[in-house]
Amino acid sequence: MMDIPVRGNIRDYSLPKILTYINRHRKTGTLVIKTIALTKKVYLSKGAAIFASSTYEDDRLGEMLIKAGKISLEQYDRSVRILRETNKRLGAILVELDYITPKDLFWGVKFQVREIICSLFLLDDAEYEFIEGKLPTQEVITLKMSTGNLIYEGVGRIDNWTRIRKEMPPTDTVLMLSKDPVTLFQDIELSPQDRKMLTIVDGAKTIKELVDSAWIGSFEGMKILYVLWSIGVVEEKIRVDEKPEEAGEIVSFEEILQPLSEDEYAFSGKVDEIYMSLGSRNAHQVLEVEEDADLETVKKSYYRLTREFHPDRSFGTADPSLKDKLTSIFDALTDAFNQLQSGSRTVTPETSVRNSVGAEEHFRRGVEEFKKGDYQVSARSFTSATDIEPWNAKYWSYLALSLTKVTNRLKEAENALLQALKLEPNNADHYANLGMIYVKQGLKKPALDQFQRALGIAPGHVKARKAFEKLDG
């Protein structure tokens, strides 16, 4: 996935791409969208939109409830007068006056938030800025809706043919089902029309052929493809000369659309059991395959499990910790798959262009988790990066750093740094960091040796000099 700047114009980076980027990188912060006439803000927690605000008068709760038929104009006017006198929240006033029930208020706030966000998709020229960090407001009632469903609903409201053609790939582009489980199995309630269109996306037809073979008009057909493309369920096929059978289809659209009907209590129990055992499972055990399983079997198991334990399954439950647990399981599944996949063939810089993108994504994820203090998760992400690009010394160095923060993994950290040194034997930082690992292990002589090597390469290396003086003094 391409990087999205923290600020820009939605002409250059569409709202679906911005929201998808924030969601995939699980960022927390405020997305501010500004035009000359209004400012709207979307508050996101770990990549999921939970609240929104707007300076546009028609987006206020009272106006929303009037339009939805929940209150009368007389009730609205009286509640606004009390609001000005008391400075209480309008929702609380409406409940106190018995104009609406607490259940109506709960529905109304979620409806308001969803409408504010969906209205943003209709803008085609607005400045945006994502301000990462702690959210400025703590709301009791929050939106619980997957990013995929939010984008699906918002994009579905666009009726601008020129804009759709501009944002879609050229009409001679072949579309296929996504092979990325994150987007493929996200929680989206597709309409019957969209489901039907999905059945004819076969990895062989171009956009023009898909539209022409549809049972509806060209605009409606293009719009459905635009929606499916925006949420990532279908994607551009890189090699148009590749036959569908060569693409190695692992999952069919029937499997994607088949609902998972497991009891919530039983599912939560299964999640807890797997989550608690992640640290003691190897890649084969995580993916529930035999040690001698071939790549095809590994892939099928990976897709089955990522569908079952997709983080979006947390939106239908009341357990606030479930999403974090599912995210950890999903990451472990992806890391295990990348490990076994890369181990099944020789990986080189020349033959792994596609994998290099994945490696950088894992690296960024590792850095983010490290900053949060989740060192085990960051170590798994850095491990995936090294599995995909074993020639990248930076990934080995960061892996070592995260492992030093995890109990009983100093030896693994040492091995990771030794690998980094093989790749970059003249990097003073690697020697200094290796010396610090030996200090933690109580190995004074090897630690001094590493600090001396670091200083031999970079005499002014502050970290190595201070550590050497402290240990030698």
Helix-strand blueprint:
Elements (H helix, E strand, L loop, with lengths): L6 E3 L5 H10 L4 E6 L4 E7 L2 E7 L6 H7 L5 H14 L3 H7 L5 H19 L6 E6 L14 H9 L5 H7 L7 E3 L3 H4 L7 H8 L7 H6 L5 H13 L3 E3 L16 H5 L6 H14 L5 H4 L8 H14 L13 H22 L9 H20 L2 H14 L4 H11 L6 H14 L4 H13 L3 H14 L4 H11 L1
Antiparallel strand pairs: 1-5, 2-3, 2-5, 3-4, 6-7
Helix pairs in contact: 1-6, 5-6, 7-11, 9-11, 13-16, 15-16, 16-18, 17-18, 18-19, 19-20, 20-21, 21-22, 22-23
Describe this structure as you would to a colleague:
With 473 residues, the chain is an alpha+beta fold. The protein has three domains: 139 residues, no CATH class; 98 residues, no CATH class; 209 residues, Tetratricopeptide repeat domain (Serine Threonine Protein Phosphatase 5, Tetratricopeptide repeat), CATH 1.25.40. The strands form two sheets. It has a five-stranded antiparallel sheet with strand order 1-5-2-3-4, covered by helices on one side. It has a two-stranded antiparallel sheet with strand order 6-7. Helix 18 packs antiparallel against helix 19, helix 19 packs antiparallel against helix 20 and helix 20 runs antiparallel to helix 21.
Keywords for this entry:
single chain; 5-stranded antiparallel sheet; 23 helices; globular; alpha+beta; two-stranded antiparallel ribbon; Serine Threonine Protein Phosphatase 5, Tetratricopeptide repeat; 3 domains; 473 residues
Provide a compact summary of the structure.
With 473 residues, the protein is of the alpha+beta class. The protein has helices spanning 15-24, 61-67, 73-86, 90-96, 102-120, 147-155, 161-167, 181-184, 192-199, 207-212, 218-230, 253-257, 264-277, 283-286, 295-308, 322-343, 353-372, 375-388, 393-403, 410-423, 428-440, 444-457, 462-472; strands at residues 7-9, 29-34, 39-45, 48-54, 127-132, 175-177, 234-236. Helices cover 55% and strands 7% of the residues.
